Amino acid sequence: MTPLTPGALAGIRVVDLSRILGGPLCGQILGDHGADVLKIEPPQGDDTRTWGPPFRDGVASYYFGLNRNKRIMKLDLTADTDREVLLTLLADADVLIENFKTGTLEKWGLGFDVLSQRFPRLVHCRVSGFGADGPLGGLPGYDAAIQAMAGIMSINGEADREPLRVGLPVVDMVTGLNAALGVLLALQERERSGRGQFVESALYDSGLSLLHPHAANWFMSGKTPGRTGNAHPNIYPYDTVATATDPIFLAVGNDRQFRILCEYLGVAELADDERFATAGARSVNRAQLKGTLESKLATWDGKALADELSAAGVPCAPVLSVPDALTHPHTAHREMVVEMPGGYKGLGAPVKLSRTPATYRYAPLTEGNQFLPREAAND
Q1: Residues 6+ positions from 83 with CB-CB distance below 8 Å
Q2: Residue-level pLDDT at 3
């Protein structure tokens, strides 16, 4: 393989015991930035291998999307011999990622209290549903259920319709991001103390953390937030609006942008109308403003208008399909679609580092039964 620029985490070794989404995403982030990640799967493989269609060679696309830049091996951790293999791997590891139900690793003698004594520099990251204790401690967590419990569904959807799940596993994904952030914080602290620590990223906590600005609004006003469709609860026009063709999304955040919008549409007087002259007034009178804008936009082509407004300084976008978004010229420019030998195609790393960029070294399903030498981990 052609040598690549060592990543920011070159030399860091990760044992990834996790499965499904949050933990594997954390491992993939660390791997993209140079860590040597060894993913340990049970004999039947990660559950998401079956989460399709579509499938390639019997493995679902869902799995391919989360397990790049890892080499895999299979261990049956219910067996004493395979647990010994794991301990051998941990002796040379910096990070352990796992999302076993609380008590499982402890039952096998692999809990943090035991591992931290044997491997004092190990950063042990657990992705959990609700944490280990408290009223819901130890219960399993699932993205959609947390969306319901954390209030996310209550503010998602149209005002006159039922609460709606966000159409992607946002809680699982932000939990994976928080896990990666926690690992990096712990590794940074280890530089001072020489000691690892336990890092926990819980779906429940992560779900609640997504509630801005609804939580801030409730803390200040005491008013229960409701569903506002595509509109922002605090500012307007920050919403989809109809045109002669496809809808566009206006994201007007201040008075200057609103004035530019009004002038461009030939209704400059709206910017001085007391109902719409300030952000607060526009938010209160949003229904009237939306109707006025849509009547003016009824003769405009949506996509062309979005391009023109963006160029004029009005935050605005066409509402694209997933294929259109992934094939957009700027997506290619930002290197947000990655292709690797063997037909792999996936989303690129969103964090861009100038000297140590992300690299793509192993497609999913690459096998390996040991860590690479530290100096060769990025070759």
Answers
A1: 75, 77, 108, 109, 110
A2: 56
Measure the CA–CA gap between 60 and 364, rounded to whole angstroms. 11
Helices (H), 66-199: 80-90, 104-107, 112-118, 143-149, 170-193
Please check the confidence at residue 175 and state whether its pLDDT lies above 70.
yes
174 membership: H or E segment, kind and range: helix 170-193
Residue type at position 62? Y
Q: How far apart are the first and last CA of the chain?
A: 7
**Neighbour count for residue 20 (Cβ, 10 Å):** 21
Is 5's pLDDT higher than 70? Answer: yes
CA distances from 312 to 36, 169, 265, 301 (A): 46, 35, 11, 16
Peptide bond into 225 cis (omega under 30): no
- Whether the CB-CB separation of 366 and 73 falls below 8 Å is answered with no
Query: What's the pLDDT at 2?
Result: 45
pTM of the model: 0.93
DSSP state of 147: H
Angle at 194 between CA 183 and CA 35, to 5 degrees: 40
Following CA atoms 49, 53, 57, 58 in sequence, which dihedral angle do they give, to the nearest 10 degrees? 50
Amino acid letter, 265: L
Active-site residues, by number, are 172
Go through the domains of the chain in sequence order and give each one's CATH number. Answer: 13-210+327-376 (3.40.50.10540), 248-318 (3.30.1540.10)
Check pLDDT > 70 for residue 1.
no
Residue 149 CA to residue 166 CA, distance in Å, equals 13
278-323 pLDDT, tens digit each: 999 999 999 999 999 999 999 999 999 999 999 999 999 999 999 9
Note the Cα 151 to chain centre separation in Å. Answer: 18
Q: Which residue, among 227, 223, 103, 234, has the nearest Cα to 163 in the 3D structure?
A: 227
* Paired tokens of 50: 């079956």
Q: Are 77 and 42 in contact (CB under 8 A)?
A: yes
